[in-house]
Amino acid sequence: MSPSTRPLLSLDRLTRAYGSLTAVNNVSLELPAGARHALIGPNGAGKTTLLNLVAGTDRPTAGRISWDGEDLTRTAPARRSRLGIGRSFQHPIGIGELSALENVVLACWRHHPERRAAWRRAERLRRLRATALEQLDAVGLADVAHRPAGALSHGQRRMLDLAAALAGRPRLLLLDEPAAGLTDRDIERLLEVLGRLPEDVAFVLIEHHIDVVAQLVDTVSVLVEGTMLRSGPTREVLSHPDVRTAYLGTTADDVDPGGPETNTGGERVADEGRR
Ligand SMILES: Nc1ncnc2c1ncn2[C@@H]1O[C@H](COP(=O)(O)OP(=O)(O)OP(=O)(O)O)[C@@H](O)[C@H]1O
């Protein structure tokens, strides 16, 4: 396959079993460069496990992961990160005692090609700080750059994590429920930031806010009990009767996956009420 036609990420019959529980079962998926993809499904469907397998923090029991044509199945997470797979987590991970800026400087440093030497020259350090500030500005945190991460609001900390993930200039960003716990205003900001990502940056989003999914992504995969129920264009998948029954908890036409004009109420799926 030529570099222009091969997928950026390819999952081939990926399975992850924990003892008798198969969290991810025979899942295949291909994503091109610049893909905007959502993973949805009920609680415990295997969404986070699948992201962990792609990030390399968990290993598949069977199946294969390819990245830009290269077999990544056994590659360590740090190398995946250097190859361009960035991620943000369900809960903020920034270091509370360090300022927002210092957190992002650290993230920039981790991805610096000359990591060990990056501190030695004042000029390099200045450049790292300038890049970090740009990232903070891009997510709307320039004003609080010098505040300790621990003193930021939940929404700001999540944006800080996003700035840190973007600092690695990822080609694929894995986002685990980025809108969880955010205010409507923070969600707007998140939509803006993700909507402004360069076209060739792909992301995979786990999200329970269906209106966020409908606004942000072109394609969706639905996982149920570890298996792929359906995968394809957002509108088609969200309106499929099987998806409505299995996940959205609706049987009638009371969910419109059409987009912001018709679905602005911050709708979360029925399943979420059980959390
Ligand atoms: N390290 C682990 N050891 C054992 N079981 C695990 C482990 N990680 C996940 N599981 C189980 O695998 C299943 C899938 O979990 P996972 O967190 O991937 O689901 P999810 O779709 O992300 O759920 P949620 O929407 O609640 O975050 C669950 O039954 C979970 O308890």
From TrEMBL:
Superkingdom of origin organism: Bacteria
GO CC, alphabetical: plasma membrane
Region (Disordered): 249-275
Entry's Gene Ontology molecular function annotations: ATP binding; ATP hydrolysis activity
Database matches in PROSITE patterns: ABC_TRANSPORTER_1, ABC_TRANSPORTER_2
Entry annotated with the keyword Lyase: no
Record-linked SUPFAM superfamilies: P-loop containing nucleoside triphosphate hydrolases
Protein name listed in UniProt: ABC transporter ATP-binding protein
Origin species: Streptomyces tardus
